[in-house]
Amino acid sequence: MPLPLMAIAAVVSAAASVGGAVKGGIDADKKRNIEQQLTFLNNEQKQKLEKQLREAKSEQERLKILGDTLNVIAAARVQGLSVVQVEKEKTKKQLLIVGIVAASLLIITVLFISRKK
């Protein structure tokens, strides 16, 4: 499914804002990493970040805004990963219970059939 034109424009605009904010102090690898991190923001968050970066008075203030945003993204990702891990554990327990019940039914069925003969 192709990305909507507005989404592409927002990402390009956010990347341009980030590029302007970090133009002097960060090398290309770090800049690319930051741009990848920003892909996790929704359109509303990207617009808010762009506005804050435009309103910032100094390079240091822009870097602080960008750092705070990246910290929020990292915290959200960690929380998301912890939720996934909890769900995996829950699924494991459910599969174990289903396996035990299925094995018990199989043993009961085998015993029942062997006693009938």
Q: Could you tell me the strand content as a percent range?
A: under 5%
H/E element order: HHHH
Number of helices: 4
The helix fraction, in percent, is over 70%
How would you summarize what this structure contains?
Helices cover 85% and strands 0% of the residues. The chain is an all-alpha fold.
Question: Can you describe this structure?
Answer:
The chain has one domain. The protein is mainly α and 117 residues long. The protein contains four helices and no strands.
Outline the secondary-structure elements.
Elements: H1 5-22, H2 28-38, H3 43-55, H4 59-116
Distinctive features:
mainly alpha; 4 helices; 85% helix; 0% strand
